[in-house]
Design a protein that fits this description.
Length: about 350
């Protein structure tokens, strides 16, 4: 509910529900959210299981070897449970996933879950820094463009957003490496840390910015930041393009509404109107866009990690694909899907908190 100026009404002005009904409504909403989350995750497991079944890679052949006899091959199939009926194999797969058993990588001979725990912090760190930069700049550009629609700044912001959204991310990464690393030497090259520091830091959290800060050595922290800035900027440009466009469109959609006209009639300036009236009313939409961009960065950093030699989940999956390492590919796909579902679920809750009208 909003007041005459369009802002959310104070809590004491909203109609109050009886406590019992509010409690039941909260429990019903929580139960509905949990059921939806469970169904989504189950559907994700169905998809990954189907991909494993349809894959031309034969795990029994990999286990037994190319030159194994028929008896050895059949024994390998039996040991892997491939002779069991399809429903039984699916239930076994679900049970393994729920216990963290994603199989053994054919490339590293390590449990896939262990490999993912090792490489995923790098992807999470890169995506988090990129979305923080992309969200701050993207929202700011959207607000600036909406202040003077169809003006010079608005046109420049739209052109920049179009370029950022359209330019292939791998090409932009190569261009950044050529310009800022090879030519200008403003930033470090591929990888997360230079060799001089790689063996002097003991990872604690897996997030090198935190680990080097905890280690207390300024040189290693600066080196980590220097390696991070280029890939994070490339991803941020890609994300802020969509964030700025949708922020601008949402704000322009609010500018013509009655409460905005009434606020102008009362003498409220455009900047104050934008920041204190319009922006809070589109906060839920902007938050959803930022969360979707973040989830996309978590799953779409494959090319960026490959170009910059970033040892994250994307590069791990790329290596697994070229090696036909199906357990690693499917395990990584499942983890990315789970992250996407969790990010969307958390965003839905935060959006309802920020904007109660969405409840």
């Amino acid at each position: 509910m909003t007041d005459s100026s369009g802002r959310l009404a104070a809590p004491e002005l909203l109609p109050r529900r009886p406590r019992g009904r509010r409690g039941l409504s909260f429990l019903a909403g929580l139960a509905n959210w949990l059921v939806t989350l469970a169904i989504t995750l189950l559907g994700l497991m169905v998809v990954t299981f189907a991909l494993a079944e349809l894959s031309p890679a034969d795990p029994a052949l990999h286990l037994a070897g190319d030159k194994a006899s028929e008896a050895t091959y059949q024994a390998a199939r039996q040991s892997l449970g491939l002779d069991n009926p399809l429903p039984q194999r699916f239930l076994s797969y679900v049970g393994n996933v729920l216990t963290g058993n994603l199989g053994t990588s054919w490339s590293t001979n390590q449990p896939v879950f262990t490999d993912i725990l090792r490489v995923f912090p790098a992807t999470l760190e890169l995506a988090t820094v990129a979305i923080l930069f992309g969200a701050l700049i993207g929202v700011a550009l959207g607000v600036i463009a909406a202040l003077r629609p169809r003006g010079l700044i608005d046109g420049l912001v739209r052109i920049f957003s179009l370029i950022g959204y359209s330019v292939p991310i791998f090409w932009l990464g190569l261009l950044f490496l050529l310009l800022f690393y090879a030519r200008l030497h403003w930033a470090a090259g591929p990888g997360r840390l230079s060799d001089i520091y790689a063996y002097t830091i003991t990872p604690v959290t897996g997030f090198y910015l935190i680990d080097t800060a905890l280690w207390g050595e300024e040189g290693s922290f600066v080196d980590t930041l220097s390696h991070l800035v280029l890939p994070a900027t490339v991803l941020a440009i890609h994300s802020l393009a969509s964030i700025s466009r949708l922020t601008r469109a949402s704000l322009l959609g609010e500018r013509g509404k009655e409460y905005a006209v009434a606020a102008r009639a009362k003498g409220v300036g455009e900047v104050r109107l934008m920041l204190t009236h319009l922006l809070p009313n589109v906060a839920g939409t902007v938050l959803t866009v930022i969360a979707l961009a973040y989830a996309t960065l978590l799953e779409g950093a494959v090319l960026t990690e490959t170009v910059f030699g970033w040892p994250g989940l994307g590069r791990y999956m790329t290596t697994a694909i070229f090696a036909s390492d199906m357990p690693a590919v499917l395990g990584g796909t499942l983890v990315i899907g789970v992250c996407f579902v969790i990010v969307n679920a958390i965003t839905d809750i935060l959006a309802r908190i920020v904007d109660p009208r969405l409840s």
